[in-house]
Each structure stands twice: as structure tokens, then as C-alpha cells.
Amino acid sequence: MIKKILVSQPQPASGKSPYYDIAEKYGVEVVFRSMIKVEGLSIKEFRQEKLNLADYTAIILTSRTAVDNFFRLCEESRVSIPDTMRYVCTTEQVAHYLQKYIVYRKRKIAFGTTGKLNDPQFVAAVNKIKKEKFLMPVSDVNKEDTSAIEALGINLTKAVMFRTLTNDFTQDEPFDYDVLLFFSPSGITSLKKNFPDFDQNVNGKYIGTFGPTTAKAVEDAGLRLDFSAPSPETPSMTAALEKFLESKMKEQ
């Protein structure tokens, strides 16, 4: 019987989340507890990459973390971002997050629909400005496949701007979850680091993932993937979780 679910993400600052609606509907406890933590590179570390941020005319952004660290390093490098800068984001949510730093204008901001770098809408947006000089902020463990946009013949540089670290569990911190939700391969790495003897079958835990690279990380770790998103039927993690919970209730 499923009683407790781990969402391996930080707790929403607003205090509102579809996960809370699921918890109330299905009588389960949802706990937000990130398995990883992100640390931005210092300006000294970034300078070792020997990149001049002022040289680039377009930015590819895949997450809010990428947005934050790009603008932070620009400020610390004393680089003024021109109004002509073009932004291509993997999702509309990331695009809207840009409003924290710039005036949002549709003519210079484009985005995809699926969050994937091979998403047709995203690739088309890059293709429209393919003559620009692109910069893509990434983490030190970046494994994203950029082949779809590189096939366009664009000038693309990946710049490591932040690192991903495991957010270790303390000895007295319970790990009594029935369902584990992961959103990046780093979360799986953290699970194996914190619990090297973790046996999914013995512990009776279910695993759900978001994104193809996270799903592959589960399989590569020798674990069982019980459900995943996005898919045509379940475009979000919450939709996939709810469908899974409904199926388990029918089995009882």
C-alpha cells in the first residue's frame, strides 16, 4: 500500500503544488526533498574556461538554474547584455522566468513545447536564427544531446556555469518512502551514493521519472522503472503519478 511519496525537488516557495492535490485525493503523504543541490561556479572558476560572454548573440536555456547562473556570471564579469540578445528556451516556463532579468519580448524569445533539445518547435526556433553565435549554459555533468540543433550547422558553445552535487541524507533521516520521483540522472546517482545497498524489490519501492535521460539512468543503475513522463497520455510528472496511483488502487 502506498502511503508516502518522495518528490526529489525543492519544496515550492508558494506553498502550492498539484502534488498537494494528489496527496489529498489519494490519502498519501508527499514530501519534497531534493536529492541533489546545485552550486554555481565562482567567477574565478568560470574564467578558466576562457570564454568572453560578450561574444555571443544568442543563448540556449534549458532550466531556471541555467538562467540564474548565466545572468549572475554576466553581472560578475561586468558584461552588459544587449537588447539584441536572442533567447531560445526548451520550455515556455523557462522563457517566462526570463522576466526576472529582462523585459519579455516575443520577438527575441522563443521556446519549445516538450523540454527536449530535439523538440521540433525548439529546433525550428533555433533554425530561424541559425546565423547567431550561440552559448548554452550547462552543468558539469551535462549529458544533453544537442545533435538535432548542431545538425543545423550553428556555432554553439557549451559553457559549464554550475555544478551538481549530491544532497546527502543524514544518519537519522528516515527513508521510508513507497514511491520515489526523480527528475534528473543526478538524482539516481545520489540515491546510489546515499544507499549503495538499495534493493528496490526488497525495499518494495516504486520509481517514477521525468525525461528520457532520467529513465535511462534508472535502467543503467539496474533499477526498475515503474512509470515515466512525459508521454502523450501523461505530459507531466503529476499526471503520470496520478495514473500510477489509480492503477495501484484498482489492484487493491
What features would you highlight for this structure?
Rossmann fold; 252 residues; 10 helices; alpha/beta; six-stranded mixed sheet
Polypeptide structure, described:
By secondary structure, the protein is an alpha/beta fold. It folds into two domains: 4-35 and 168-251, Rossmann fold; 39-164, Rossmann fold (3-Layer(aba) Sandwich), CATH 3.40.50. Helix content is 33%, strand content 22%. The protein has ten helices and eleven strands. It has a six-stranded mixed beta sheet with strand order 3-8-7-4-5-6. Helix 7 runs parallel beside helix 9 (212-220). The radius of gyration is 20 Å and the shape is globular. The model has no long low-confidence stretch (mean pLDDT 92).
At the fold tier of CATH, the topology name of the largest domain is Rossmann fold
Element pattern in H and E: EHEEHEHEHEHEHEEHHEHEH
Large-scale geometry:
globular
Beta-strand percent range: 15-25%
Mean pLDDT level: 92
Could you estimate the helical fraction of the residues in percent? 25-40%
Overall structural class, as computed from helix and strand content, comes to alpha/beta
Quickly give the CATH architecture of the largest domain. 3-Layer(aba) Sandwich
Total beta-strand segments: 11
- What's the domain count? 2
Task: Enumerate the strands of the largest sheet in spatial order, edge to edge or round the barrel.
Answer: 3-8-7-4-5-6
Q: Report the radius of gyration as a whole number of Å.
A: 20 Å
Summarize the main sheet. Answer: 6 strands, mixed
- The low-confidence parts are none
The span between the termini is 8 Å
CATH class (first level) name of the largest domain: Alpha Beta
